[in-house]
Design goal:
Layout (H helix, E strand, L loop, with lengths): L14 H10 L4 H14 L6 E4 L1 H16 L11 E5 L26 H8 L3 E6 L33 H9 L4 E6 L5 H7 L2 E4 L19 E6 L2 H11 L28 E5 L9 H16 L3 E5 L7 H16 L18 H12 L2 H14 L5 H24 L2 E5 L15 H6 L5 H6 L3 E9 L2 E8 L5 H14 L3
Helix pairs in contact: 2-3, 5-6, 7-15, 9-11, 9-12
The chain binds glutamine.
The site of glutamine (GLN) has 14 residues, from strand 4.
């Protein structure tokens, strides 16, 4: 961590330790909330936070402290402050998804993930910045402001959950929530130096999270260590009647991790280690692979032939779903509405053209185009065919390996503004993360070292529903890594 981060701040304890201290009455929830809010206040220059939920957070903290005093049972996350990406519907502040079109929107209900965290006593203290509607890789697409990287204020934190990444690494709260549609939890984790977990598709509910691309959207935490990620997953995972795509959770706790790598086979993804990969990043990843081998794993190279097509497939499927999901923002029901409209059509048109930013418009246009008759077969259908091929190739690969590894991103955090005028270059940042979403498998980014002080993330992927196994290897790596 460089010296721009206040060095006087204590690191937060592990989440389970914080909760147990609160439960024992050794620490007060209200003090934790106040400390988190104080840090948020002191770190405003990083632009990681859109709004705090201070009043509600303090009320909840007092309630939890009172329950403890009264000898009542409190949850596994009692008094633990957290920050939610601002596309999670939450009480206590507006939910904007960092878009002008949702400015002023107060959620009528909360996301299932938020409800589950609160049921265990966690306290949401603030809403984190993101690329508007989670469209992006740097937070530069936020309609409000760009978040700064915690290690270098001239660089991006990654995106789209960049506010959550920076906030976690600065220590504004013990953890933050992100969303991952094509890498948006893993990329900021990699660029900021945090642990990012994208669970198996459907393991965490999408209910109450602003929809981006519904067949790809996954909810998960950004934390400072693997145990915390496992605990948060354990609290939020599982079937939800409000999201029909959710799946049954593992019966065993996600916090019960295996500590043995022997007999495990790790496949190094050939396509991620070649052209386009920064050579210094590559060295860090090779060192990480050597550490895993030294810890007892068998390493082999794996090639997935359709992988080079994944980015193209993603940037067809994703905008197609975005164009459909964003059609609900029409200025009539909620969010921004153009007041001087001459008639209904003008109201739709003006509300959307003023309310949406450039990237949302770009994706609506691309998505509408690839879905339009005449182009549907050439683009959307073809992309879905290749998506199925990718799923099959990953399934085949997982017949001979337990995990796949590679870098999370081809480079370290880039300078603010560097890719702004070049959407293709920006999209290339996602080249190593999108496949896990297209295939639906769980994937993590874990800090593996740095290049001149800028963090590098090791990406590990596992088969669907093997989230516990994924967390296990991540934890082993965390313990053996030679940084
Ligand atoms: N960077 C990718 C995109 O721009 C992924 C975004 C995400 O996961 N929300 O679409």
């Amino acid at each position: 961590m460089n010296d721009s981060v206040p060095s006087t701040w204590d690191k937060w304890d592990n989440i389970s330790k914080i909760a147990s201290d609160v439960t024992k009455g050794d620490v007060k929830a209200i003090d934790l909330v106040n400390e988190s809010l104080r840090r948020i206040d002191l770190a405003t220059e990083y632009n990681s936070i859109i709004a705090t939920t201070a009043e509600r957070a303090k009320q909840r903290a007092v309630m939890i402290d009172d329950s403890i005093k009264a000898g009542e049972k409190v949850g596994r996350l009692a008094g633990v402050p957290f920050i939610a990406k601002d596309n999670y519907l939450t009480f206590g502040a507006e939910t904007t998804a960092a878009s002008n079109i949702l400015k002023g929107f107060s959620a009528p209900y909360q996301a299932t993930v938020i409800e589950r965290l609160e049921a265990e006593g966690a306290i949401c203290v603030a809403k984190a910045n993101l690329d508007a509607f989670a469209h992006g890789s740097s937070t530069e697409n936020s309609d409000f402001f760009t978040t700064l990287n915690p290690h270098d204020k001239t660089r991006v934190p990654g995106g789209s959950s960049g506010g959550s990444g920076t906030a976690t690494v600065l220590g504004l709260a013990p953890f933050a929530l992100g969303t991952d549609t094509g890498g948006s939890i893993r990329l900021p984790a990699s660029f900021c130096g945090a642990v990012g977990l994208k669970p198996t598709y459907g393991l965490t509910s999408r209910s109450g999270v602003v929809a981006m691309a519904s067949s790809l959207d996954c909810m998960g935490p950004i934390t400072t260590n693997v145990d915390d990620a496992a605990l948060i997953l354990d609290v939020i995972a599982g079937k939800d009647e409000l999201d029909s795509t959710t799946i049954m959770r593992d019966k065993q706790s996600y916090t019960q991790l295996d500590s043995d790598l022997s007999g495990k086979v790790i496949g190094v993804v050939k396509e991620y280690m070649g052209e386009g990969l920064d050579s210094a990043v590559k060295s860090v990843i090779i060192k990480a692979i050597n550490d895993l081998e030294a810890a007892g794993a068998t390493i082999k190279e794996v090639s997935l032939l359709s992988l080079p097509l994944a980015l193209a497939v993603y940037y067809i499927v994703c905008p197609a779903e975005i164009s459909s999901n964003l059609s609900r923002y029409d200025g009539q029901r909620y969010g921004f509405s153009y007041e001087d409209a001459k008639n209904l059509e003008d109201s739709y048109e003006s509300s959307r053209s003023i309310g949406f930013g450039a990237e949302a418009k770009r994706r609506i246009m691309i998505g509408t185009y690839v879905l339009s008759s005449g182009y549907y077969d050439a683009y959307y259908k073809k992309a879905q065919t290749v998506r199925t091929k990718l799923i099959n190739e990953f399934n085949t690969a997982f017949e001979s390996v337990d995990f796949l590894v590679g870098p999370t991103a081809p480079n370290v955090a880039f300078e603010i503004g560097k890719n702004n005028d070049d959407p293709l270059q920006m999209y290339l940042t996602d080249i190593m993360t999108v496949a896990a979403n297209l295939v639906g498998i769980p994937a993590m980014s874990i800090p593996a070292g740095d290049v001149d002080g800028l963090p590098v993330g090791l990406q590990i992927m596992a088969t669907s529903n093997n989230d516990r196994e994924l967390l296990s290897i991540a934890k082993i790596y965390e313990e053996v890594r030679s940084i």
